[in-house]
Amino acid sequence: MITVEDIGFVRYQVTDLERIGQFLTDFGLHTVAHTGSTLYMRTAGAVHHSHISELGVTNRTIGFGLLVQKYEDLERLAAHLGVRVEDNSEPGGGKRVRLTDPAGFVVDVLHGQARHEPLPSREPVAMNPTVRRERFGKTVRVARGPSSVVRLGHVAVLVPNFQETLAFYRDVLGFRTSDTYWAGAEQNTIAAFLHCGLDDQWTDHHTIALVATQESAARFDHAAFEVLDLDDVFQGGEHLRACGYTHAWGVGRHVQGSQIFDYWRDPFGNKIEHWTDGDLVNDSTPVGHAEISNDELSQWAPPLTPEFFF
């Protein structure tokens, strides 16, 4: 078992790199490299790139990258899988172990990838709730434009072999469960929110969310990017709406994870999320187990439409 510290990137195949590049720019990402066949885009944070688009004849989800702190974790993983640690030939370099998980996703486990200086952005808005007021003698004026996307937070995936995939991420990659959903009977777990197994260190409520599906092939449900604050969620959404993109659901606050969320569709139908204010957990945080329902997906939000689940 190894220790993953965070998610690095999500990887898609698309039929038009220019269209996806324009959307992601309006979403709040920035181009790092364009090889002619592959587009690499970053957030404002230090990670080299957080979104990869590969040109192909169909639109589909391919996989994602995970980051480890220690090179020894790559060696341990490679020995367990019977593969070799290799040079990462993509922009950012470093070393990687490339694997295919039980659901069929291509997963790159990376160490030593180059990092950027974070891009400049405004400070998060200081809030004035009825207690613990923070903003004195200052106004709030948020500039119009794309969200300030700070980092990739998680990927949610639909998998036909839920138990096998869950066991792999738990027993091989060291993820730990934060919350689960059940359907029909409490013993029938059909979704798991997994955080990086960092012992006592606080980390995101989920870095990978696994959801059982009746579909024959696995695919992403969505990729989720953290933005500066609540104003950034709304302002980024207003920019996307003004650009004519398709809104999927939000703004609302989740139950599991507590994130304030807003979901959009890229030009090829993939769901992508702006979020802020998520829960932090560690390996001592109690694990929740709830019955799946539309009401359990949000504490408050506009009504869900059936199209959201496709």
Key traits:
single chain, 310 residues, 9-stranded mixed beta sheet, 8-stranded mixed beta sheet, 19 strands, 16% helix
Q: Can you put this structure into words, describing what you see?
A:
- By secondary structure, the protein is of the alpha+beta class.
- The longest helix has 13 residues, at 230-242.
- The model has no long low-confidence stretch (mean pLDDT 96).
- A hairpin with a 7-residue loop joins strand 6 (86-87) and strand 7.
- It has helices at residues 17-27, 71-81, 162-171, 230-242, 294-297, and strands spanning 4-14, 30-34, 38-42, 51-55, 60-68, 86-87, 95-100, 106-111, 149-159, 176-182, 189-195, 203-204, 208-212, 219-227, 246-253, 260-265, 271-276, 280-281, 288-291.
- The strands form three sheets. A nine-stranded mixed beta sheet has the order 15-16-17-14-9-13-11-10-19, covered by helices on one side.
- The two termini are 34 Å apart.
- The chain contains five helices and 19 strands.
- It is globular and about 60 Å long.
